[in-house]
């Protein structure tokens, strides 16, 4: 199936300008910052009253991405010492929390000294370690306990973070012990609970049921504390998926938010809910652009060999899908008269796994043309093995500053998006 889309004119102009200045075939990332801000504002506006939005910077921790979203989100979710440095160096400081298993003592101490809002505690052992550090700094540290609950089978997704044996969070069977341990720690203050059970969730109905499950459990979890009235926060993580294969069919975020709002209104003592979203915020603003260097036939299969590859854009391999492709002819050759033929798009690596997309129907492709892989703003370059084979790292071009320009206009140039 082929969908017709338009590329925003300012992104198309940036791609063309960059290619003109390349002495070698190009491979680069382009990020549409005005589109990122507009999408972030739409996500934020759909939230029910008193529900917060944090950005999980693991999706894309580039400074320009963080700075663009800083005017939109309520805070940041971090998971390493390196991410602490990224957040603290942001042009617009925001509240932030520290999550993740295997936290270093040095990172936890540094986080406290840098003003961390709260820690998401992942284990009973982490409670004891954090108490020692907080006591040494003579401060009372707010914390949330991350729960790994038992989940009904129908609430699963392709990437489970909870509801099964994982290194994430505290088994719900140990939650009473964990709450008692925090209550007994003189330098820790329990403020609530954190659950991030599913990642890359594309079913809004399943995610609605998942949030309902959390809210049903909330009174029971809260009652475990010595002073339940102080337990007010329920962090429901993120995990909202992106439909890479059918870009026009995305997650019904407004529908999820409407249902959540109704559920919270019906509760006598609702928690203050917080989302920590990464992929669903930043994915849509990014484009990975590669230049066709060679064409070949091998055992009956047609290949386009491109600059770059999965060492720069690992997402298709990580998600086990054939990424959508936009064909941008470099010159005015008669592509519209050519017939479609299936191409497998590969990069420069010395491995058969270096495949960005298989059997994509394109027409009139020539050496020097550009192939654009959209939806590349999250878990693309930042999860890639960029130093493999010692190829140079790709340039990252941040197009526009959201605060300095009006909303982008679409170009009249049509390109072909192939699923």
TrEMBL record:
SUPFAM superfamilies (alphabetical): Alanine racemase C-terminal domain-like, PLP-binding barrel
Active-site feature positions: 350
GO biological process annotation, one example: polyamine biosynthetic process
Orn/DAP/Arg decarboxylase 2 C-terminal domain: residues covered: 284-377
Swiss-Prot/TrEMBL keywords: Pyridoxal phosphate
One MF annotation (Gene Ontology) recorded for this entry: diaminopimelate decarboxylase activity
Cited InterPro entries: Ala_racemase/Decarboxylase_C, De-COase2_C, De-COase2_N, Orn/DAP/Arg_de-COase, Orn_de-COase, PLP-binding_barrel
Cofactor: pyridoxal 5'-phosphate
One Pfam family per UniProt: Orn_Arg_deC_N
Residues with PTM N6-(pyridoxal phosphate)lysine: 58
Membrane-crossing segments per the record: none
Xref: Gene3D superfamilies: Alanine racemase, Lyase, Ornithine Decarboxylase, Chain A, domain 1
Positions of the Orn/DAP/Arg decarboxylase 2 N-terminal domain: 36-283
Similarity annotation: Belongs to the Orn/Lys/Arg decarboxylase class-II family.
PANTHER family associated with the record: DIAMINOPIMELATE DECARBOXYLASE (PTHR43727), GROUP IV DECARBOXYLASE (PTHR43727:SF2)
Protein name: Diaminopimelate decarboxylase
């Amino acid at each position: 199936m082929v969908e017709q889309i338009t590329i925003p004119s300012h992104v198309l102009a940036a791609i063309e300008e960059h290619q003109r200045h390349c002495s070698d075939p190009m491979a680069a990332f382009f990020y549409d910052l005005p589109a990122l801000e507009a999408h972030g504002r739409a996500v934020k506006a759909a939230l029910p009253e008193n529900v917060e939005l944090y950005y999980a910077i693991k999706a894309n921790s580039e400074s320009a991405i963080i700075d663009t979203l800083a005017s939109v989100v309520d805070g940041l979710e971090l998971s390493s010492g390196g991410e602490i440095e990224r957040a603290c160096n942001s042009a617009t400081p925001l509240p932030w929390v520290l999550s993740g298993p295997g936290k270093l003592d040095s990172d936890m101490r540094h986080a406290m000294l840098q003003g961390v809002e709260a820690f998401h505690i992942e284990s009973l052992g982490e409670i004891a370690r954090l108490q020692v550090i907080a006591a040494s700094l003579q401060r009372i540290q707010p914390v949330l306990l991350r729960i790994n609950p038992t989940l009904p089978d129908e609430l699963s997704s392709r990437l489970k973070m909870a509801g099964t044996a994982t290194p994430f969070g505290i088994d719900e069977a140990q939650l009473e012990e964990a709450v008692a341990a925090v209550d007994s720690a003189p330098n820790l203050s329990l403020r609530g609970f954190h659950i991030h059970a599913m990642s890359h969730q594309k079913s809004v109905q399943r995610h609605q049921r998942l949030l309902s499950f959390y809210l049903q459990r909330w009174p029971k979890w809260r009652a475990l504390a010595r002073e339940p009235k102080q337990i007010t926060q329920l962090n429901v993580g993120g995990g909202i998926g992106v439909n890479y294969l059918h870009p026009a069919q995305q997650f019904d975020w407004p529908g999820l938010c409407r249902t959540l709002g109704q559920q919270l209104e019906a509760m006598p003592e609702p928690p203050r809910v917080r989302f920590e979203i990464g992929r669903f915020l930043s994915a849509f603003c990014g484009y990975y652009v590669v230049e066709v260097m060679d064409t070949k036939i091998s055992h009956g299969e047609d290949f386009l060999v491109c600059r770059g590859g999965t060492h720069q854009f690992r997402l298709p391999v990580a998600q086990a899908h054939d990424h959508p492709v936009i064909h941008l002819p470099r010159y005015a050759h008669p592509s519209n008269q050519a017939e479609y033929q299936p191409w497998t798009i590969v990069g420069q690596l010395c491995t058969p796994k270096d495949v960005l997309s298989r059997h994509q129907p394109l027409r009139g492709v020539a050496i020097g043309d550009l192939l654009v892989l959209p939806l590349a703003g999250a878990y693309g370059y930042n999860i890639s093995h960029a130093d493999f084979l010692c190829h140079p790292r790709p340039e990252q071009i941040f197009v526009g500053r959201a605060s300095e320009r009006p909303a982008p206009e679409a170009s009249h140039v049509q390109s072909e998006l192939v699923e």
